[in-house]
Amino acid sequence: MKVKSTVADIKLGVNLIAQNLKDELRIRAEEKLGSKQIDWSTIYITGKEGFKEEVAKRLYHSHIAYMPGYIGNSLGATDHDMYWIDKDLDDRSFKLAIGAKAIWKYRIRVYKSLEEFVSAQNKETSSFTPHDMKLIEEMRKGHTPKIQPLHSN
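The structure assignment produced for this chain is given below.
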């Protein structure tokens, strides 16, 4: 027995398979999240090279609901990443999911708003304290700086 299929029949079959797959994925997501509607909050993360893979691995194995995001790398910088997390999740829980060891190792910083993230990216990073910068400025002017103790007892 030969079955003759038309292009329309094949398209219909593919569409039915796609719809079934979508339904199955939606049901699995609802089971995982407990049929909860989630309001998403955007989190921006910066860190040293290699932090992205570590954060992704730790979040994957955590209990929190998240979705990875994408920040275009216009200057080739790869020291930042973005995630959407449940709006009800607090900072502490998110950081616990990443782990203190990874946060310390990669010097990870978490920003809850785009303004904070952009502001931190635009600031000149310096290991000098304001007191150190004042001393350097006085030395440039040629004055002998008066060194004052940082902490007085």
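Interim note for the steering committee: The radius of gyration is 26 Å. Helices lie at 7-33, 51-60, 91-98, 100-106, 114-122, 130-141.
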